[in-house]
From TrEMBL:
It comes from Liquidambar formosana (Formosan gum). It comes from the Eukaryota. Heme binds at C62. This is Cytochrome P450. It holds the Pfam family p450. Keywords: Heme, Iron, Metal-binding. PANTHER family: CYTOCHROME P450, CYTOCHROME P450 26.
């Protein structure tokens, strides 16, 4: 029976609890070119296994993953088809000292409801 395993040059002893930091994985420049830039097209191509784990992975994956994804799709459809969007500040720089990346300017936008949207 193994008493430890070596991973990336670090010894992990049997019985230790290991926490996977998804934020570090999602911002790893070895996995994503310019990880601090907003670039949804980086997901157009298949990713390496476990390089994007917003809902965790393995036996402890979020049970609501399918419902969450469907809810986001419905919400985004209604938001993008029912409103005219105007970005008030085009500064693309990200704030890096936060748990989740966010635009330094906060990305102020103006939404104007479309009259015939039915929303």
């Amino acid at each position: 029976m193994m008493m430890y395993v070596v991973m990336a040059g670090k010894e992990i002893k049997k019985g230790w609890k290991v926490n996977v930091d998804a934020t570090c994985i999602h911002l790893d420049p070895a996995l994503y070119k310019d990880p601090m830039q907003f670039n949804p097209s980086r997901f157009d191509e298949p990713q390496k296994p476990y390089s994007f784990i917003p809902y965790g992975s393995g036996p402890r994956t979020c049970l609501g993953i399918n419902m969450a994804n469907m809810t986001m799709l419905v919400f985004l459809h209604r938001l993008t088809s029912g409103y005219k969007w105007t970005v008030d500040d085009l500064d693309p720089r990200l704030e890096t000292k936060t748990h989740l990346p966010k635009l330094r300017s906060g990305c102020p936008i103006t939404l104007k409801a479309l009259k015939d949207s039915g929303i």
